[in-house]
Write a structure and sequence with these properties.
The chain has 81 residues and is an alpha+beta fold. It is built from 1 helix and 3 strands, in the order E-E-H-E. Strands 2-1-3 form a 3-stranded antiparallel beta sheet. The longest helix is centred in the middle third of the chain and has 11 residues. The chain starts with a strand and ends with a strand.
């Protein structure tokens, strides 16, 4: 199996539909603290069957859904493809 793309929608910090394209070879994800790098890995684990909230730095499964911010309302679902 080869992963080529990860699409997140409402998952943790990825409130808007976001695609991570995984090219052949080496794909790097860089950015400042708090930008969502770890959330990408957790989304990958979730879509592959992980269902323990503690494995995704959460207290319950509701913690994987975007909870809102000062300028954005909360979402009611999270989706990872």
């Amino acid at each position: 199996m080869r992963l080529t793309r990860l699409r997140l929608n409402g998952f943790k910090s990825f409130v808007d539909p976001t695609d991570l394209v995984i090219h052949e070879g080496l794909t790097g994800v860089v950015g400042p603290n708090g930008c969502g790098k770890s959330n990408l890995l957790e989304a990958l684990r979730w879509v592959m069957g992980e269902n323990r909230p503690s494995a995704m730095r959460g207290g319950g499964m509701e913690d994987v859904i975007f909870n809102g911010a000062a300028t954005r309302g909360a979402r009611h679902f999270a989706e990872v493809q």
